[in-house]
Amino acid sequence: MLTVRYDRLGLRPGQRLLDLGCGFGRHAFEARRRGAHVVACDISSEELRRVAATFEAMHLAGEVVPGTMGACVQADATRLPFADATFDRIIAAEVLEHVPDDLAALSELARVLRPGGTIAVTVPAWFPERVCWALSDAYHAPAEPGGHLRIYTSAELTAKLRTVGLEPRSSHKAHGLHTPYWWLRCAVGPQNDTNPLVRAYHRLLVWDIERGPVSLRIAETLLNPFLGKSLVVYATRPVSGARVRSSGSPVAAQATGVRREAA
What we know:
alpha/beta
């Protein structure tokens, strides 16, 4: 289930891509299949161990382009351990709403993106998120695992991208079918996985992901502009005039216990 459109990101074989806040690795895996050198970065060592295992399995199954790299790095989004201008493309999917200092994280992303490179930033879209917050305090409680700290408008996100020297180019919304599901979960309790309606809707989403029926693809396309759960903004770092800070170190899997896999 991809949120970012790779045609808009402009990813090409051989480019270096950072997947910040990679989670279980959905965007990292697709980028690797497309021939990119991928660094999956997350604050969770457990998530990274799973991503590293999948990178290795993809290599053994012949699902990656020979000679490409897949690495896992554990790091804080506000202190990335990479040299300036390291990456050609960056994905930061559903990350910023969890970071207390989102401008610091965006500044780091701008720093490690090469001039002329493209970044895709995704956050929960304003209207679906407002409803979730109204239905459930636990959904956005900072103390809860995965709690959301803020709600973005499109104007706020693009303004923050410009503040750190990035130039927003285009945007779209994604996952319109997922919005009613999250409203339902918030209504019955975000951690309530046993509710019959929640379970039934979850089966529908799994069927959609696994089978991609035309009827649901059409439905989501129609819903996305109005009920898309995620807002996706694509921005570039100008070739000149971008504000960056010098810090970090070369690409490396530096976290103890996190494996680096290359093929």
